[in-house]
Automatic annotation (TrEMBL):
The lineage of its organism: Bacteria, Pseudomonadati, Pseudomonadota, Betaproteobacteria, Burkholderiales. It comes from the Bacteria. This is Quinone oxidoreductase. Residues 11-322 form the Enoyl reductase (ER) domain. NCBIfam families: PRK10754.1. It holds the Pfam family ADH_zinc_N. The keyword Phosphoprotein does not apply. Keywords: NADP, Oxidoreductase. InterPro entries: ADH-like_C (IPR013149), ADH-like_N (IPR013154), ER (IPR020843), GroES-like_sf (IPR011032), NAD(P)-bd_dom_sf (IPR036291), QOR-like (IPR047618), Quin_OxRdtase/zeta-crystal_CS (IPR002364).
Length: 324
């Protein structure tokens, strides 16, 4: 038997229950992984609240790192004892151990700790596809990235700096502004005290930016469009403040023939080759010290309710991990 978090209904942090579960043996194409650390991400909140539906009762969590305990038939490339990490569905990472499909696992370099891996896989691979694939940055651009002091934002700031890109980031406090600057964000806007659209235009000499990366949603969506240059791209990859309101497609034309995309990590790592390439790029950036992972919060797995409450209240910065 093993301990895990389960939900029987959607709702607030209180719906998460710390319960004993039977893990079982892996079937064909599966492995059993003993977790050393589990990542906390805002997408977990979406599943907990029901914004993103899933069958219930069910688990939560899409990111963890640990050691393979057992390997099912037909699994190639993995053995008992391998250090591994993953990010992606199916949900269920909030657990001491789990049986899961082997095809979302990657082997973890010895130079990267379990804690670091659990804190960076989903966020780091998200930054990789955003900056290197969705809108491939070449260097010399000035970009807008919302939530610059969050886990994704701090990684993005470092990656942008390594690429020679100037990042404008938004934050909600002066403390978060200082943190974003420490990690390479060149211009930081406190959206509680400044109009971010006006500041972006000021910073760019009225031109706007070629791309906006927006994980906030409702509160920033239309303003983000207004920050773009003609033919710029709006990359909407989250809804931390709620889903953006519907709008007429003609809004894109009237603002300068803009592009809008709503990507998700799963579509960028859907093949073994894509997954290994994306994770490998992230591992290389971390191993080269161009990116450091800021683990600013640690909670026991059983205290995940408090972790979710703090995340939703925007009390967290950088990455957060749960310790089974």
């Amino acid at each position: 038997m093993s301990m895990a978090i389960r939900i029987n209904k959607t709702g607030g942090p209180e719906v998460m229950e710390y319960v004993e579960v039977e893990v079982g043996e892996p079937g064909p194409g599966e492995v059993r992984v003993r977790h050393a650390a589990v990542g906390l991400n805002f997408i977990d909140v979406y599943f907990r609240t029901g914004l993103y539906p899933q069958p219930l009762p069910g688990g939560l969590g899409q990111e963890a790192a640990g050691t393979i305990e057992a390997v099912g038939s037909g699994v190639q490339g993995f053995s008992v004892g391998d250090r591994v990490a993953y990010a992606g569905r199916p949900n269920g990472a909030y657990a001491e151990a789990r049986v899961m499909p082997a095809d979302i696992l990657v082997k973890l370099p010895d130079s990267i700790s379990f804690d670091t891996a659990a804190a960076m896989m989903l966020q780091g691979m998200t930054v990789q596809y955003l900056l290197r694939q969705t809108y491939p940055l070449k260097g010399g651009e000035t970009i807008l990235f919302h939530a610059a002091a969050g886990g994704i934002g701090l990684i993005a700031a470092q990656w942008a700096r390594a690429l020679g890109v100037t990042m404008i980031g938004t934050v909600s406090s002066e403390e978060k502004a200082a943190l974003a600057k420490q990690h390479g964000c060149e211009h930081v806007i406190n959206y509680k005290t400044e109009n971010f659209v006006e500041r972006v235009k000021e910073i760019t000499g009225g031109k706007g930016v070629p791309v906006v990366y927006d994980s906030i949603g409702k509160d920033t969506f239309m303003g983000s469009l207004d920050c773009l240059q003609p033919r710029g791209m709006m990359v909407s990859f989250g809804n931390a403040s709620g889903a953006a309101a519907p709008f007429a497609v003609s809004e894109l034309a009237s603002r300068g023939s803009l592009f809008l995309t709503r990507p998700s990590l799963g579509n960028y790592v859907s093949t073994r080759a894509d997954l290994d390439a994306t994770a490998g790029d992230l591992f290389a950036m971390v191993e080269s010290k161009k990116i450091s992972i800021a683990i600013n919060q640690r909670y026991a797995l059983k205290d995940v309710g408090q972790a979710h409450a703090d995340l939703e209240a925007r009390k967290t910065t950088g990455s957060t991990i749960l310790i089974p």
